[in-house]
Amino acid sequence: MLLGYLSNWKGKTVPTPLAPDEQYTHVSLWCLLAAPLIFSGDITRLDDFTLGLLCNDEVIDVDQDPLGRPGRRVAKDQKLEVWAKDMEDGARAAGLLNRGESAATVTAQWPDLGLSGPRVVRDLWRQKDLGQFDGRFGATVPRHGVVLVRISRLP
């Protein structure tokens, strides 16, 4: 995993070639795919940003969900994609990805996610509730970036 700062073959710490938005995308896809999360750097030398990437409990919960099903791409429109993962409690984790070179609006449609009716959406990287949505959720996603959300039934 190329995050924050890396130890190179000479044992020196060097910055990752990935921009911050690309790092969020990288970790989000790993979690949506239920891939093993492995970090091989020196944890005592991490900057705050990298620590935040590795220690966000809500994002890690997506990867470690007990259902254990990997996510999949459910929609694609040129460089814009929506990935989704079923969660044990009936929620969906969704990654709104922008592989393009400029910011763009990415929309997750409930039918693509196997959902219907009103749902609550939470931004997992920012650990912030975004509100109630019915039928779809859209967000502006930066270049090479992601918005990772959890879409749940109403309380």
SSE blueprint:
Layout: E1 5-7, E2 13-15, H1 20-32, H2 48-55, H3 57-63, E3 72-77, E4 80-86, E5 92-98, E6 104-109, H4 110-113, E7 118-123, E8 128-134, E9 136-141, E10 146-152
Antiparallel strand pairs: 1-2, 3-4, 4-5, 5-10, 6-9, 7-8, 7-10
Helix pairs in contact: 1-3
Tell me the CATH topology of the largest domain: Immunoglobulin-like
The run of helices and strands is EEHHHEEEEHEEEE
CATH class of the largest domain reads: Mainly Beta
Query: Quick one: CATH superfamily of the largest domain?
Result: Golgi alpha-mannosidase II
Give the N-terminus to C-terminus distance in angstroms: 36 Å
Number of strand segments: 10
The CATH architecture category of the largest domain equals Sandwich
Structural class: alpha+beta
Rg is: 16 Å
Number of helices: 4
User: What is the mean pLDDT?
Assistant: 91
* Biggest β-sheet description: 6 strands, antiparallel
Strand content: 35-45%
Helix content estimate: 10-25%
Low-confidence stretches: none
Global geometry: globular
Number of domain units? 2
How do the strands line up in the largest sheet? 3-4-5-10-7-8
